[in-house]
Structure formats: structure tokens, C-alpha cells
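Example record used in the benchmark description.
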Amino acid sequence: MKAIAIIPARYGSSRFPGKPLAILGGKYVIQRVYEQVSKVLSDVFVATDDQRIFNAVEQFGGRPIMTSPDHRSGTDRIVEAYDKCGVSADVVINVQGDEPFIQPKQLRTLISCFDDTDTQIATLGKYFDNIEAVLNPNSPKIVMSDNGFALYFSRSVIPFVRGINQSEWASHFPFVKHLGVYAYRTDTLHAITLLPMSTLEQAESLEQLRWLQAGYRIRVGITEFETIGIDTPSDLERAEQFLKSLK
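Model output (C-alpha cells):
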């Protein structure tokens, strides 16, 4: 099975303009993402709509692809980049351009999900450590079937643990946090970009519900690693400290 990775990277961001070109430990954030992914995959591309990012990726020896600035979602950008990259693949992995600490083991877990022929889309989940994290609506939860497929994603706390004080829920049910890294079979990737926005997606503002509501099978690979995304300048400061702690 041939897998490749595409990293979408936009310059515009309401909370952190120019984020992919921010410096983390002496390197661009997007460069650190690229280098982490390249530890596992030989074909890695950066999909961008900005010439500054394109030039920076070329400068550090990466493989940039210029895409339209008019895409509705990152998934649409991934499709255009795949169609332009010139490499034929069975599976395309979508790693966000603000995940400089994505772990090789996480990528291998994603790829292994496709050993099951029923898997059309794969993503990652991690067990929550405490009820405070579970209650955070910015951390979507996953409910899974016994064979590891997603039944639902929600910002709400699901399931409701009846008869137990909410402060103790995390010790009575294994709540799973959704980590926003995806992989798709290439035929599925092309098909899902044609889907209209669904009612569940509109309600929860979670794009993966569009795919789930349309009947696509999403397998969840469990990881023990927490992703450390960079959404704001303060996140970058914390990432800098984390990087120093690793050294």
C-alpha cells in the first residue's frame, strides 16, 4: 500500500497570521512538521495558497504545491494538491501545518488502520486523562464501535454516565479525545469533497460529521501521544519551551 502525506498551510489566520513561517527552535513551524512526517513517508508535500510559504518550503528542500485560495475547507485543498503532485497513492494523510510534534508512531498507527479493507477514512484518538479535559467543548469526543470505527463525534460530553456524579465520570467510562489528523483512501478523498454540508456538521461545526452522516467508515487509531498544535502566539511560546525540554 502506497501512502503519501500532504500538509495544508495557509498564511492567513485570524488568531495567528503567518503561522507556518513562525520560527520554532530556529526553524519554520512548517519545516518542523515536514521533517517529522518525512521520518515515516518518502513522499511529503505542502499545499499552500501563499507564495511566501511556497518559497520557504522550497528553501528548506521541501516539496510545495500551489493551490487555489478559494477552497472551502482543508480537505478541498488536499484534493487539488494530490491531483497536482504527480504521485499515485492508495492513501493520503492530511497532517495540519501547525503540528510540529506529530509523532512517527502516530502516522504508522494511521496507516495501519487501512489494513482493514472496510476502512475508508482514518483518524486518531487519545484517552482523556481527567474530567476537566472531557468537559472542554474545544476538545471533540469520539464514541466508537467495538471494532474501532467512529459512531459519532461531539463537542458535548458523550456518553452521559447515568447515576454517577459528573466529577467521577472519567473513572467510569473511557472517554476518547479526537485528534485532528486524517488519512483517506484516494477514491474516498475525491468523493467526500463533493458532499454538501450536513446538518450534523452545521450543528457541531465538525467537518468529519459530514462524512459520517453520509455513511463513510471512519476507523479510529488510538495513540498515547498528545498532539501539540499551534493556534496562537502564546501556543508558540509553549511549544518553544516544550522543544527545549526535549533537548
